[in-house]
Amino acid sequence: MNRLLLALVLTLTGALGAVAQNEVVTVTWWTEEGLFLEHVQNTFVAAFNEAHPNIRLELIGQQNINDLLRTAFQAGEAPDILQTPGASFIAEYIGAGLVEPLSTYAAELGWEDKLLPWAYESGIINGELYSVPLTYESMVVFYNKSLFEDMGWTPPTNMAELNALAEAAVAAGIHPFSYGNAEWRPSNEHLMGVYLNNYAGPEAVYQALIGEKPWTAPEFVEATQLLKNHMVGGWYSGSLENYYAYAGPDMWGELVEREAAMMLTGTWNFTSAQRYFSADVADEWDWVPMPMLREGDGDYIYLLATGSTISINGQSAHKEAAVEVINFLLSNPKLVLETASGSAFGEWVVPLRFEVSDFPEGTDPRISRFFADFAEVTGQGRYGYTTWTFWPAKPNVHLWQAVELVWADELSVEDYLAEHQMLWDEARAQGATLPIPARD
């Protein structure tokens, strides 16, 4: 090859290399559509794109993501980053090889040290990390503080106080709780999970999760029967009919208008509490932990939960770039909390090792009180388990679907739990159970 031709080849090779280095890779991520999305775009997405000139993150709002993902996978059009409602939801895609294993990336980038231990372990299936939590949450009782003050009520701390409060509310024409599943039918599991943990106790639930106690045990039968009694008895929005018909505005409308005293729901609803109890509403809200539901039980607990989780599409052409997005998320606690502040810390609270100084100035003290108490209480070993984080996919779906048959007297509590145990046995035989952090 003569010198002129060699120089031409080298020049062309250098130019192509420069083009490759300057090529911008687009990483797609579908997330929940809503008002909060704009804030995420202006905080996290803007910060990531500024810090990574060769990667462009496109965060796209979608409705019904979990259903949409199934269709998108079939068409080969799923996004690079997969967001699902919880670790148990991603499990159904892992068996089909649609999710990229993350353990190698996690080891190289130190993700285990960045996440809270139980949260990191929640994404491990069969020894392999497949997801990391986008947020963590728990179940608490929101209540109309102004109504309580005017009625002379105090938030309940045990079952006797809860029963007395419910009786007083009903006597005053007020529903003890407001809730509904018209927008999200799996809301049934929010209630079932609380009753299983707060009545049967977290130790009993733990033993069932690891296979040392059957779900047909008497304490689970009693817990399920108690919830049925409360559902049929009108504790939740006055009737089953209302419960099945109520969406968010109906539920919160009852609480704001003093038609309901309380709402048993997740901390993701901090943002809804602030929105519905707005500046032009005279009443104020507050929250308390849900008391234990069996006489003689001790202090309250918090249920461990990851909310949405994120994973990487196993069919993605940009896996390394997607890893960069996740690593950026896990490496910036102040940015995470700045982003989460746009939802009143109801979404995008990645379970990192936050310092108090990481929270933005002006954070609502009711919200910061939860995160401080959650850390202290769970650090003492006082915690239970949410169904959407620790139940395998099929038992989880059965839990919230079939319980409606129990409430309708079409399936006995005993048969319901026997079916549930059978699905757990199948999941265990298939190696489809999720990791359960060992109790302290």
What does this structure look like?
The protein is of the alpha/beta class and about 450 residues long. The chain has helices at about 5-20, 35-50, 65-75, 85-95, 105-110, 110-115, 115-120, 145-150, 160-170, 185-200, 200-210, 220-230, 240-245, 250-255, 270-275, 320-330, 335-340, 365-380, 385-390, 395-405, 415-430; strands spanning about 25-30, 55-60, 80-85, 125, 130, 130-135, 140-145, 175, 260-265, 285-290, 300-305, 310, 385. A four-stranded mixed beta sheet has the order 8-9-7-10. A three-stranded antiparallel beta sheet has the order 3-12-6. The model is unreliable at about 1-20 (pLDDT under 50).
Would you kindly provide a brief summary of this structure?
With 440 residues, this protein is an alpha/beta fold.
Tell me how many strands there are: 13
Q: How would you sum up the major sheet?
A: 4 strands, mixed
Range of strand content? 5-15%
Secondary-structure class: alpha/beta
Total helices: the number is 21
> Which stretches of 5+ consecutive residues score pLDDT under 50?
1-20
Mean pLDDT: 91
Rg over C-alpha atoms, rounded to the nearest angstrom:
24 Å
> Helix coverage percent of residues?
40-55%
Strand order, biggest sheet? 8-9-7-10
Distance between the termini: 72 Å
Global shape: globular
Based on the model shown, name its key terms.
440 residues; globular; 50% helix; alpha/beta; three-stranded antiparallel β-sheet; four-stranded mixed β-sheet
List the helices and strands and how they pair.
Blueprint: H1 3-22, E1 25-32, H2 36-51, E2 55-62, H3 65-75, E3 81-84, H4 87-94, H5 103-109, H6 111-114, H7 117-121, E4 124-125, E5 128-129, E6 132-133, E7 139-144, H8 145-151, H9 159-171, E8 175-177, H10 187-200, H11 202-209, H12 218-232, H13 240-245, H14 248-256, E9 260-266, H15 270-276, E10 285-288, E11 302-304, E12 309-312, H16 319-330, H17 333-340, H18 365-379, E13 383-385, H19 387-390, H20 393-407, H21 413-429
Parallel strand pairs: 1-2, 8-9, 11-13
Antiparallel strand pairs: 3-12, 4-5, 6-12, 7-9, 7-10
Helix pairs in contact: 2-17, 10-11, 10-12, 10-20, 20-21
